[in-house]
Amino acid sequence: MGDTVLAATHFVLAFLLVATLAVELTLIRPGMSADDVRTVGRVDMAYGLLFGALVLVGFGRVYFGPAGASYYFGNGWFWTKLAALGVAAALSLPPTLTLLLWRKAAKRDGTVPDAARIRGVRNWMHAEAAVLLAVPVLAVLMARG
Fold first, then answer.
1. pTM score, two decimals?
2. Which segments cross the bilayer (predicted)?
3. Burial, 26: exposed, middle or buried (Cβ in 10 Å; 0-12, 13-18, 19+)?
4. Which residues contact 127 (CB under 8 A, 6 or more apart)?
5. Which of 81, 90, 119, 132 is 20 to 30 A distant from 52 in Cα terms?
6. Separation CA 69–CA 72 (nearest Å)
7. Taking Cα atoms as reference points, which of 85, 30, 99, 76 lies closest to residue 52?
8. What CA–CA distance (Å, rounded) separates 72 from 55?
């Protein structure tokens, strides 16, 4: 039963993560108001928390799942999946740091980002989304050994 709970939680977190990224991409657009900047900052924080929870629950499955850690650690697809998650995490850093600066400016004097800066952040996020699309494929390959 424990593995069922871990597996279900892992899947729900993955779906929530993708949904949160989609919400961020929807909110980050030209013409953002200071309130929009604050909102997207909160959504980005939720995204980071979901990402961390997803990784923790995933490692819970590695250590407490029926396959055992040796199965995962000896599986090249597992390491490829972890590498993809690492790349996605790295790609999420520039947008997160930029959003923090935008929030600070919006709070200070109501400054909002211009279209070029918004486009730049969206480009990073699109790259991140593309990498995340590979993760379920890698998970299937991993499960099949």
1. 0.92
2. 6-25, 46-64, 76-102, 123-143
3. exposed
4. 91
5. 119
6. 5
7. 85
8. 14
Q: Where are the alpha helices (DSSP H) in the chain?
A: 2-27, 34-64, 69-73, 76-109, 115-143
Interval 9-26 mean pLDDT:
97
pLDDT averaged over the chain?
Answer: 95
Decide which of 8 and 2 is more confident.
Answer: 8
Asked if residues 43 and 24 have their Cβ atoms less than 8 Å apart, the reply is yes
Lookup: tokens for 45: 């924080």
Please enumerate in sequence order all residues whose Cβ is within 8 A of that of 39, keeping only pairs 6 or more positions apart, or say none.
27
| pLDDT above 80 (res 17) | yes
Token pair of 136 as six digits: 């379920």
- Token pair recorded at residue 91: 């790609």
